[in-house]
């Protein structure tokens, strides 16, 4: 784990990168990294994020300036800009069930090729997917999902990169921290090793490549 | 009583002690206001919380404690936090006893369409497909008709949410279940006759010998 500034962290992300961003409607999102993506005008981003948040908040900031070229997510109904860009075919959006979204990422982080889920069988979601029967029950094969960079927000990070999360800001963060080539983390508080007890570490330090220094 | 209150009060009667319950947005959210006194149920918010409490008082909201719509909520004593993989494991894995969801259409076989109107409304399905596929009991809480058109239809022409049929539909006019896979009128709203309900219902409903009024 290496400590970096937000500017250095985002400087490592090239245009057209595939990025995975934690958060649920902007809660538990690394806002400082998004502000820096906006400031450095990164473009053509492939975004993997649960939702498009709202304009000016969380990943919504990336839609404000047209920095996203494609998105995989579950719901963009509360961001009119993302909706307009999708309906105007400026961006491609793959909307998938939320349970499938998180399991595909989990699979990507855990060395699995994919998962079998009953969700989506008999609906539009099954189009183009392999259907597999197990014990007489149909499932869809949903393939694993990974990214070049995971942008994660924690509540506490210690000097060794161990992370813990707070309340509903946990959401997709620990799952995404497993599923990218490079993991960049912001935290509300950076604390000495030992403040987060071993039992309370949710994301172990070795998963974290870069921790963004505070203040 | 206004239509939404009728629906929410009637759905609340379905809750049993200890149930783990997931409420969708819209009318389903109102069900939490009518939990019978002394009945302990657990409400899940799919962004990672069991034990949601009421909207916090002024100045008591925490920016990291929100519902699935991103609005501030509170957590009750005994609440639990988990990540999204566990949250949807609870949902898809059959650990949620009851989910209450809004609907656009329910058909005579109990199939629900509630996430998309092609060309008009394409927000994404969020957690709806997992909830309908995985919860032990699926209850649809919706108005019986919209703009004069029945939402209880012969066959859904909107994209389905799941191949799994729902268990109960509660509207402002009726309670409908699907014993033997066929829509059956169980109750009418207070003051309505069976004929009045059938007059605004597109789907053919099976009629048991006794069809009481809802008790609210």
Helix and strand pattern of chain B: HEHEEEHEEEHEEEEEEEH
Instruction: Describe the global form of chain B.
Output: globular
Beta-strand segment tally of chain B: 14
- Intertermini distance of chain B: 10 Å
Low-confidence stretches of chain A: none
Helix content of chain B: 10-25%
Average of per-residue pLDDT values of chain B: 96
Largest sheet of chain B: 9 strands, mixed
- What's the total helix number of chain A? 6
State the total count of DSSP E strands of chain A: 12
Shape of chain A: globular
Low-confidence stretches of chain B: none
Oligomeric composition of the shown chains: heterodimer
Radius of gyration of chain B: 17 Å
Task: Describe what you observe in this structure.
The complex is a heterodimer of chains A (215) and B (216). Chain A has 215 residues and is α/β, with parallel strands linked by helices. Chain A is built from six helices and twelve strands. In chain A, the strands form two sheets. In chain A, strands 1, 2, 3, 4, 5, 9, 10, 11 and 12 form a nine-stranded mixed β-sheet that branches. In chain B, the strands form three sheets. A nine-stranded mixed β-sheet of chain B has the order 4-3-2-1-5-8-12-13-14. A three-stranded mixed β-sheet of chain B has the order 7-6-11, with no helix packed on it. In chain B, strands 9-10 form a two-stranded antiparallel sheet. In chain B, strand 2 and strand 3 form a beta hairpin. Chain B is globular and about 50 Å long. The N and C termini of chain B lie close together (10 Å). The interface between A and B is large, with 49 and 42 residues. Chain A: This is CoA transferase subunit A. Chain A: Keywords: Transferase.
């Amino acid at each position: 784990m290496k400590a970096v500034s937000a500017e250095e962290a985002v400087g490592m992300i090239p245009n057209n990168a595939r990025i995975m961003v934690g958060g649920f409607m902007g809660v538990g999102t690394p806002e400082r990294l998004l502000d820096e993506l906006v400031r450095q005008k990164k473009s053509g981003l492939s975004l993997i994020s649960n939702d498009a948040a709202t304009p000016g908040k969380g990943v919504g900031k990336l839609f404000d300036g047209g920095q996203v070229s494609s998105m995989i997510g579950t719901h963009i109904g509360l961001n009119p800009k993302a909706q307009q860009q999708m309906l105007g075919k400026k961006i491609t959006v793959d909307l998938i069930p939320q349970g499938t979204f998180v399991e595909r990422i989990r699979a990507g982080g855990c060395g699995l090729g994919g998962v079998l889920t009953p969700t989506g069988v008999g609906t539009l979601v099954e189009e183009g997917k392999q259907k597999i029967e197990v014990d007489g029950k149909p499932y869809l094969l949903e393939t694993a999902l990974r990214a070049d960079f995971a942008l994660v927000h924690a509540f506490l990070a210690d000097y060794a990169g161990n992370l813990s999360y707070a309340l509903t800001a946990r959401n997709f963060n620990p799952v995404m921290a497993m599923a990218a080539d490079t993991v960049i983390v912001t935290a509300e508080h950076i604390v000495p090793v030992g403040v987060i007890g071993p039992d309370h570490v949710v994301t172990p330090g070795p998963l974290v490549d870069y921790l963004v220094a505070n203040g | 009583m206004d239509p939404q209150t009728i629906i929410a009060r009637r759905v609340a009667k379905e809750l049993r002690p200890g149930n783990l319950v997931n409420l969708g947005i819209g009318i389903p959210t109102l069900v939490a206001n009518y939990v019978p006194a002394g009945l302990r149920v657990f409400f899940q918010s799919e962004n990672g919380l069991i034990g949601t409490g009421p909207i916090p008082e002024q100045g008591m909201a925490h920016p990291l404690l929100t519902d699935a719509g991103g609005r501030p909520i509170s957590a009750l004593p005994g609440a639990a936090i988990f990540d999204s993989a566990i949250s949807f494991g609870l949902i898809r894995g059959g650990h949620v006893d009851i989910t209450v969801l809004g609907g656009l259409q329910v058909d005579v076989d109990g199939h629900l369409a509630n996430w998309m109107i092609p060309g008009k409304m394409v927000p994404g399905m969020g957690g709806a497909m997992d909830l309908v596929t995985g919860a032990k009991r699926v209850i649809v809480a919706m108005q019986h008709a919209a703009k004069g058109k029945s939402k209880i239809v012969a066959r859904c022409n909107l994209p389905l949410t799941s191949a799994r049929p729902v268990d109960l539909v509660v509207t402002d006019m009726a309670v409908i279940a699907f014993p033997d896979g066929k829509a059956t009128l169980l109750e009418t709203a207070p003051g309505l006759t069976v004929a009045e309900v059938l007059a605004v219902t597109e789907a053919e409903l099976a009629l048991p010998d006794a069809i009481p009024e809802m008790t609210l």
